[in-house]
Amino acid sequence: MAAVIGIVVVALTASTATKAVMSGPNAWLPWWARVLGVVVFAIVVAVHLWHLRAGAPRERAWHVAHVLMALAMIGMFAPTRQMIVSAAIGKAVFTVAAVATLAYVSALVIRGELLGWLWPALAADLAAMVYMFAPRPPSLMWFTAILVGWSVLQALGWLTGVLPARADLGTPRGALATTDSGPSRHAASVRISLAAMNLGMGYMFLAMALGMARTPGMVPMPTMPGM
Question: Is residue 171 part of a domain?
């Protein structure tokens, strides 16, 4: 499934690539990096769609959110002249998703459920996606650096198993946290997909902040946030 989705998405996006994009203003996003990003995030989509087939409603919602983020990142990396999804739509969608996730996290806390890492991390990542779609003045470079560091640390945590894997989806206090179903199990494919997600987001933050070539007379692409 991952291979098929990756091949189809790459074929569709690469067919619209132009010489102007391949040698475009962002030195951090050459055509091969764009295609690689599309392939990686297509695999992330496939992994979470695979895990979406089973599990409790909250587990499925968690996977749906990651599918949404991965699709948005495919749009960011796609080697097209313009973004597939406009910045306005991206900001609106991820603002709603981030607020809904924060509300859910608050409800878990109010109900007295044990809260692990997965939902708070998801809320933070969704908020980071809002920032990615929003125009940013150079004065916010320090915040971009924080988000890059956050992304890298999360990726290392998922890959090494340091991040907690118990009660990650919310467990009533006094109940035994389970680790045998859904994201709580942190199957290898899920951990790798989470690490890829965070590393890809961190790289895009850097590309948007530092990658635009300072060529005299070069006009930034108005449809690419951060450029």
Answer: yes
